[in-house]
Structure formats: C-alpha cells, structure tokens
Amino acid sequence: MQSDSEPNALPKSEPSSTQGKATQIIHNRRHKDSLGSPYSPVYNTTTYRFPDTASLQEVIEGRTPGNLYTRWGSNPTIRELEQGLARLEEAEDALAFASGMAAISASLFAHGGNGIVCVGDLYGGTQELLTKHFQPLGISVTFLLQHDSEQLAGALSKPGMLVYCETPANPTLAILDIQKLAEQAHAKGALLAVDNTFASPINQRPLALGADLTIHSASKFLGGHSDITAGAVMASTKLISPIALWRKNLGQILAPETAALLSRSLRTLPVRVQQHNENAMKVASAMTKHPAIERVLYPGLPNFPGHSLAARQMDGFGGVLTIEIKGSREQAAKVADNLRVFLLATSLGGVESLVSQPCNTSHHSISREERELHGITDGMLRLSVGLEDTHDLIADLQQALAQL
Ligand SMILES: *Cc1c(COP(=O)(O)O)cnc(C)c1O
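Above: query sequence and pyridoxal-5'-phosphate SMILES. Below: predicted holo structure tokens.
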C-alpha cells in the first residue's frame, strides 16, 4: 500500500532564498505526492467539500486555513504558482490573474484611487484603461512623457497616490531609473508600481530597487510559448491583500489548468531568458551594420541612450529590440511581410521570433504627431527575438532587407 509515510512522500527541504533562481523555481512545490511525482497534481476544481458544517464554519470564519472556492484565490495549484512568482521577484507574496490587463486593472483599482501619475510610455491597453475608464470615474490620471523630477513632484499633489511606469518601454526600449522613481514617489507618500513584462524577473527585479508593486503580463516571457494568457502582481502581503479583494470581486482568477501550465513554463524561465538575451544581442549587433537600417534600439548596445542605466539596474538586456528602416511606412511593412522565420504578430516573449510594426499595431490608434512625441516612427519594426538559431534569424532579416 502507498501511504504518506512512504519514503517518496517524506518532506524534503524547501527551496531557500539563498539559492539561485533556477534552483528555487524548479523545486517550487507545495504538495508532496505519495506516488513520488516530483510535481504537484493539478487541482482542477471550483469548490471543496467539507465533512460537516462545523468544519466549514472553521474555515469560512478564518480559524482554520482551508480552501473554499477557486475564484477567491483558494486553490492549491494557483497558490503554488503564486509562491513561484513571488520567489522569482523576491517578493513576500504574489497573485496570479487571467491576463496581464486583469493584473493591471486590479492593482490600479486597489492602489490608484487617490490619483495616478504615469511616467514614460505605457502599454496601449493600460493607456486605454486609464483614459476610457479611470478618468471618467473621476480618478485623477496624469501622464508625464519622461521622468522629470520637478514635474513628478508637482504631479504628486497629495499623499496616497500611485506612480506607474514600464521599463524597458514599448517599442522604444526607453529605460527609467526605478530606484530614483521609488525615492521620489516615497518622498511624496506615493507608491511605485512597475510593469516588468519586457524585462522579466530574471533580468530585473523592481522590488529590490525600491518599487512597491511589480506587474507582469504572463502571456509574454513568463508563459514563454505564446499559448498562455495570464498575469501576475508581486508585492508585500500588506499591498497584495486589497488587490486580492478586487480580483475576487471582479472575477479575474485564472483557471487552475492554466496555472499549472504557467508553473511548468516558469521552470525554464531562467534558461529561456538567458538565451533570449544572447540571441537579441546577436541580432541587434548584426543589424547595426546594415546599410538599410537607420537605428537599432536595444538596451544592450553601448551607444543606446539608456545603456549605462540598464547595465546598472538590469541583469540582462532582454529579448526585444526595435529596428528603424530607412524609408517609408510602406517600406518597413514590406520588410515585415518578407520575413519568413519571424512571424508577423503583435506579442512578445515566446520561443518563436515575432515582428510587428508599432504604427500599424500597438500604436495604430494614436496620431502620427503623438507617436512622434513618444519617439515612435513609421519605419520602426519591433522584433521579439525567440530561441531559434541566430544565424537563421539574421539571414532572414538580411533577405527581407535585400528586397527593399
Ligand atoms: C501584453 C502586455 C500587457 C497586457 O497583458 P495581457 O496578458 O495581454 O493582458 C501589459 N503590459 C505590457 C508591457 C505588455 O506587453
């Protein structure tokens, strides 16, 4: 008979924060399986049965820990994922969501009610959420084009506000100084939230730099295979708890099955991100020499404006870069259309390489003048460099550019 006293089921030591990220995430599990499976079973359930009403009351009144209903976040598969996400960002706790936008909206609702100041460029969905929903609700939202200390101090007009930013930004890869933003936010009694999607926790950990909340679209590098839609927030238990209430009442939990898939993805995150970094650096370097290219924007290139800041606050420069084609919007589109290995698609962070033209996709809805204000030109192509062989990626770009 198998039982919990079988040697296989003996609890092994938990991963510790002194171990490396890869070790910690590969050994992140909450349940010891009596069959000896190295990974936990998937709890594909919405609810949990109790032997009697008295035991149910014990749990519902908080005297005994236990699971009640999956939408509330009480599900062992989801909690295990959240434990892993927290480990990766060196956070006290984490929450998993059905999408990146779910994570962003719950966080902004929970901590942005006293006013939000956005610094730098934002993901289109976040921008739309703030202008079409938050502002009409009467919540003050200020957009600062750049990190200007005086402007920031002026915009933080009362305590309890939220500073919100993304670094590296889309699609210019512009870098913001997280430590400085955190200091200035805190001096005014505000919190700092950073969308860390482009960097991933392997390359950048905003909480360690002083930020209060880290947010991810897990549909990108965390999922890593363009087959999962999910999101995450990492923070202290104190800041997580009001976000969990919004998640519960907005109904933004992700499915346990997706949580299990995301946990599987996280086990290869360190090695994937390292390879994305290497591949992107090789592609970026090769493109700087190409006569048809005006500029290459990649934080790893020594001549990139934010290079030294990126080198200071990041452990790697990421898998996304932007090339600017000499010529018109149509010529840049032609290059995108002629690529064979790079797929024409708008996401990023997957094992496959993707290309998108910001003026035709992520920044389609804003005017050319406004795009230019943000440094986004018609000739730009954003590349999400995947895990293919880099000589194939470079050859693909060269053949597409040769057809101009
Ligand atoms: C994709 C993305 C989001 C939104 O995430 P979804 O999972 O699509 O909801 C938010 N922020 C950034 C930087 C993104 O790239």
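The chain is about 40% helix and 15% strand.
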